[in-house]
Specification:
3 helices; 2 domains; alpha/beta
């Protein structure tokens, strides 16, 4: 068994073997990133847990807006090699638009 604690490690393990069971934990949506086929039937030799951190982006910006209402520009730095980057960028753009920030 291989146990991984982030999406890049899970993808590396998935690429390395089709036979050894892989258990992952990730902050990303494993279906959206292509790690597994579905939550109910992951398929292949992978299974795991996702904490789906991406869903809290809007709440974080809401709190930021309450703490610093004069803020108008939000900058986010992401690792483009991380499979979560595009998902977080999409969610951040949507949330910044909702609060009137520029991104």
């Amino acid at each position: 068994m291989i146990v991984t604690f982030d999406a890049p490690a899970a993808f590396a393990a998935k690429a390395a073997t089709k036979a050894t069971p892989i258990v992952f934990m990730t902050g990303a949506d494993p279906v959206a990133t292509g790690l597994v086929e579905s939550f109910s039937r992951p398929g292949g030799n992978l299974t795991g847990v996702s904490v789906l951190l991406g869903g809290v982006v809007a709440k974080r910006l809401e709190i930021l807006h309450e703490l610093v209402p004069s803020a108008v520009t939000i900058v986010s730095l992401v690792n483009p090699d991380n499979p979560n980057a595009q998902i977080y960028a999409r969610e951040t753009r949507a949330a910044t638009n909702a609060f009137g920030f520029t991104h």
